[in-house]
Design brief:
about 160 residues, alpha/beta, globular
């Protein structure tokens, strides 16, 4: 099964589902407290996903949920500082040729409405990042790192 630590994240704009877990071994990472690598989700915004029929809020229930006794639409919002009720207010995330995924003024990703987790002080993560998502607010020094090496070809 897969184990992951997901912190300070935004999941936004996925048409058919937001977060989905498959396979019993991955669910075991949630339920088995003896594992060294539990599946951990905290400090995030899940919003504006799953807009097709069969969805329940931000999630699409499936047989894996039933088989493993965990309903993701209930479990994920119950994690520390995770919300499914706040628009992340990204500047222009759906502009296919020139997206701007920075949080706009008033975004819960930067306002403290969703408390950011402290990144690990391991030399890789920037411990000064106090926002939710991969990109900080305009002018923060965390807002343009992805520009220049990403390509958004419209074709």
């Amino acid at each position: 099964g897969t184990s992951v630590t997901l912190r300070n994240f935004i999941v936004h704009g996925f048409k058919e589902a937001s977060i989905d877990i498959d396979h019993g071994e991955t669910y075991r990472q949630i339920t088995d407290t003896s594992t060294d690598t539990p599946l951990t989700i905290e400090s995030g915004i899940v919003y504006g996903n799953c807009v097709v029929s069969g969805c329940e809020g931000e999630f699409r229930p499936d047989s894996d949920d039933d088989a493993n006794g965990i309903v993701l639409k209930d479990w994920i919002p119950g994690r520390t500082n995770v919300t499914t009720s706040m628009d992340p207010l990204l500047v222009d995330p759906f502009n296919l040729g020139n997206p701007n995924i920075s949080p706009a003024a008033g975004s819960p990703a930067i306002s403290g409405a969703v408390t950011a987790a402290t990144p690990p002080d391991d030399g890789f993560f920037d411990t000064s990042a106090t926002f939710i998502g991969a990109v900080g607010p305009a002018g923060s020094g965390h807002d343009t790192w992805w520009m220049g090496w990403t390509d958004f070809a419209v074709n």
